Amino acid sequence: MKTRYHTWNHDGRPLASTPITALTLSVQPPALAPPRTRAPGKQDRWTQVSQIMAAAHRTWQAKEIAHALGITGRKPFNSLNTQLGYWTRAGRLTRTAPSTYKITLPETLTATPSP
Fold it and tell me: Given CB 3.0 to 4.6 Å as the disulfide criterion, which of 31, 73, 82, 99 pairs with 62?
């Protein structure tokens, strides 16, 4: 009698189950990622955005910030919007309207003295 599974055991596996009697584990530390290097003189995005927004202390629309940074294209603009939302949740920016932000200056971050 020929079955439709006549070719399944070409790799020599046993026909019956084999009980596992022991396991050997070796744990190794994860490989460290190489340090990120930035081109000389290039600033990170937060430094650029904070300098732009602090120079003229007003509300900024995301498209104005993108234009000031030279960002064009849908994907880079969406990435900037995501980053602006992250900075808003972290307290670095204040969202004043949809897609409109204001920088949180250090004097507004300090707590008022307790009486």
Answer: 99
The token pair that represents 44 in the structure block: 């990170």
Per-residue pLDDT of the chain (115 residues; tens, 9 = 90+): 555 666 666 776 767 777 888 989 888 887 777 777 766 767 788 889 988 888 888 899 999 999 999 998 999 999 999 999 999 999 889 999 998 999 887 654 455 565 5
pTM over 0.70: no
- With a CB cutoff of 8 Å and minimum separation 6, the contacts of 80 are 45, 62, 65, 66, 69, 71
Residues facing residue 10 across a β-bridge: none
Pairing of strands 93-97, 60-61: unpaired
